[in-house]
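Q: My labmate handed me this sequence with no annotations at all. I'd like to see what the chain might look like in three dimensions before we decide whether it's worth expressing. Could you predict it?
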Amino acid sequence: MVRNTAVTAEHSADRTPAKLFVLDTNVLMHDPSSLYRFEEHDVFLPMMTLEELDNHKKGLSEIARNARQVTRTLDEIVNSMDGTIDQGIPLHGPSRKLANGRLFLQTQAVAGDLPAGLPTAKVDNQILAVVIDLQRRHPERPVILVSKDINMRIKARVLGLQAQDYFNDKVLEDTDLLYTGMQELTADFWDEHGQDIESHKKDGRTLYRIKGPLCAQLLVNQFLFQAGDRALHAIVREVSGLSAEIQTLTDYTHHRNSVWGITARNREQNFALNLLMNPEVDFVTLLGQAGTGKTLLTLAAALTQVLEAKRYSEIIMTRVTVPVGEDIGFLPGTEEEKMGPWMGALEDNLEVLNRSDDDAGDWGRAATHDLIRNRIKIKSLNFMRGRTFLNRFLIIDEAQNLTPKQMRTLVTRAGPGTKVICLGNLAQIDTPYLTEGSSGLTYVVDRFKGWKHAGHITLQRGERSRLADHAAEVL
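A: Here is what I predict for the chain of 475 residues:
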């Protein structure tokens, strides 16, 4: 399948004619800047696409905002036109040189040459009729329908039309290539990188200056581990050409380093706690399937740093409210009460953390629970715009359901002294038109890797129960 951004043609007589991409409405509403994402190729908008944009522009939802933004972009493009609209509107100027193609708008009615089984009153089928007409009128150039709707693409292919998904929002083609935040060292690592090694102590931990070919591939705040007799768990602190500085870790698997009574049960959890407890790391992303301990570790680190170390003033927790089954309708109460049913994971983990103090007794645990609840604020994503959080510990749960644009809106809320944690499982995306490759969580993991104030870990082992682990494997 050809990517939308593939450079294969230019507008010249001696080259293959540029492709003509027909955009479905859901592409524009998914990415308002999609009109400028096709480089030298031309873009065609059917009249029904404009009609659907008009139908969706009212309201306060993300879709409505995107529809209004696309309408404003179209108005800017049309106002920049010099010639007639039939000749296409050059996108070079309005796109600030991002696109070199032309925008064509449907200016005449199309004879419906659809099979008898397809009702002509349906919007999708009218767009397919436009693609068929364009293919007949321009046999010399590829005419391709771009849609986020799988059924729409299937119908197009059944009719002998070219159709493809919108690829430009994808960070990665294959999420198996997504940065995991750690790397295993080979058995001969010290033979290759141990020459002229330098070491010194800082804050009770050892730093090593190593040199060798692997150093050029390392990223700041990436974890390194080596099993066996010469076991090593370390984090990359600095990379400079073919040399790097690595630092040993705090061992959170040992009870003396427990965090709110919680100790790491495996290597990845230990790496995660090293990021969560580090005040120099402002942005942490944790990926992993259900039961790997993402929420529990984050809450334990948050409570320790808010109530004991006094590093942050309070904990703010939010999540995307996408129902798994049928919605239960409007919920009564304040913002926090409305978010209550979505925060079952918070209550479950607070119950575990509250039980970790065996010496407190029932009265002590009840008092601790009340103290904890006073320091945790539950906020809805709907009211995040325009806010700035100062000195807060901000937890974004179920972040895989956020678009890159929504993720940007949230992360930019962080003010001085605020730490942002994004938790999610890319295998559980519930938002329509979002995939593992285009999720906002994938987007920030890829964009923040290597920044000295950000860290990422993919948790791999489930620690919930033997039943949950077995269910995750076989079901």
